[in-house]
Write a structure and sequence with these properties.
By secondary structure, this protein is an alpha/beta fold. An 8-stranded parallel sheet has the order 7-6-5-4-3-2-1-8. Strand 3, helix 4 and strand 4 form a beta-alpha-beta unit. The longest helix has 18 residues. The structure holds pyridoxal-5'-phosphate.
Length: 219
C-alpha cells in the first residue's frame, strides 16, 4: 500500500522534474508522518525513505524511542517552534525548517548543537500562519550565519491551502526569488496538493504526507 503510493509520488516527481529539466537528486522527498505511529516511519524507512517531517515536539518525543535504529534518518521539524522548546528540538531533530525569528535563531545558536536550518517565510496575510516577514529575513540570516553549529540550507514556506495546486505557483516563485536574493540554495515548498508545481518552480525539498500515508484523522 505505502509502496504503491510511494511509486505514484515518485512518478509525479519524475514528471515534474522532466518538465523543468531538472534531475532527481535535486529534490529531497520529506515524508510527513505527523499523527501516524512510529511503525509507519519504520515502514517508510524500509522502503528507502530517509527524510521525515514532524510538526509537534511532544508527539515526536513520544514516537522517537519506539523507532528502530534508523541510522540514516534525518528528522525535520516542520511545525512552529516556540523558543522555550528549542532545546528539545535540537535533541530530537537534525533539521529545523521553521526558524522564523531572531530570538529563535539565537536560541538554536546558543544550544551549540549541529543542526541544519531553514528560515520559514510568511508570504500570505493569513493570521493562522507562522513565518518571518520577508523584510526580516536578513536579520534572521545574520544570526544563523554567525553560528558555527548551524548550517543554513535555505527557505521554507506554506502557501494558503488550496485543492488547486496551480494557485500556489506565485508563492513558490516568490520564495525562489527571495532565496536567490539572499544567496540560498534550498527551497522547502510543496505538499501533497501542489508538490509538482513546487518542483517546476525549483523546490529542493517537498513535504508530502497525505499522498504517501493517506488522510489524517487528526489535523
Ligand atoms: C502536514 C504538513 C505537510 C504535509 O501535508 P500533506 O497535505 O498531508 O502532504 C507539509 N508541510 C507542513 C508544514 C505540514 O504541516
Amino acid at each position: 500500500m505505502l509502496q504503491d503510493r510511494l511509486s505514484e509520488v515518485e512518478s509525479t516527481i519524475e514528471r515534474a522534474l522532466s518538465r523543468a529539466r531538472r534531475k532527481r537528486e535535486e529534490v529531497t522527498l520529506v515524508a510527513v508522518t505527523k499523527t501516524f505511529p512510529a511503525s509507519v516511519i519504520d515502514e517508510a524507512y524500509a522502503l528507502g525513505l530517509r527524510h521525515f517531517g514532524e510538526n509537534y515536539i511532544q508527539e515526536f518525543e513520544t514516537k522517537r524511542p519506539q523507532l528502530a535504529g534508523l541510522p540514516e534518518a534525518n528528522f525535520h521539524l516542520i511545525g512552529h517552534l516556540q523558543s522555550n522548546k528549542s532545546k528539545k528540538a535540537v535533541e530530537l531533530f537534525q533539521t529545523v525548517e521553521t526558524v522564523d525569528s531572531v530570538k529563535l535563531a539565537a536560541r538554536l545558536r546558543d544550544h551549540g548543537v549541529a543542526l541544519d536550518v531553514m528560515v520559514e517565510v510568511k508570504l500570505s496575510g493569513e493570521d493562522s500562519k507562522h513565518g518571518a516577514d520577508p523584510a526580516s529575513i536578513p536579520e534572521v540570516l545574520e544570526t544563523l550565519r554567525s553560528a558555527p553549529n548551524l548550517n543554513v540550507l535555505g527557505l521554507m514556506t506554506i502557501p494558503p491551502w488550496t485543492e488547486v495546486g496551480e494557485q500556489s505557483r506565485p508563492y513558490f516563485a516568490k520564495l525562489r526569488e527571495l532565496a536567490e536574493l539572499h544567496g540560498l540554495r534550498s527551497l522547502s515548498m510543496g505538499m501533497s496538493n501542489d508538490f509538482d508545481v513546487a518542483i517546476e518552480e525549483g523546490a529542493t525539498h517537498v513535504r508530502v504526507g497525505t499522498a504517501l500515508f493517506g488522510s489524517r484523522t487528526r489535523p
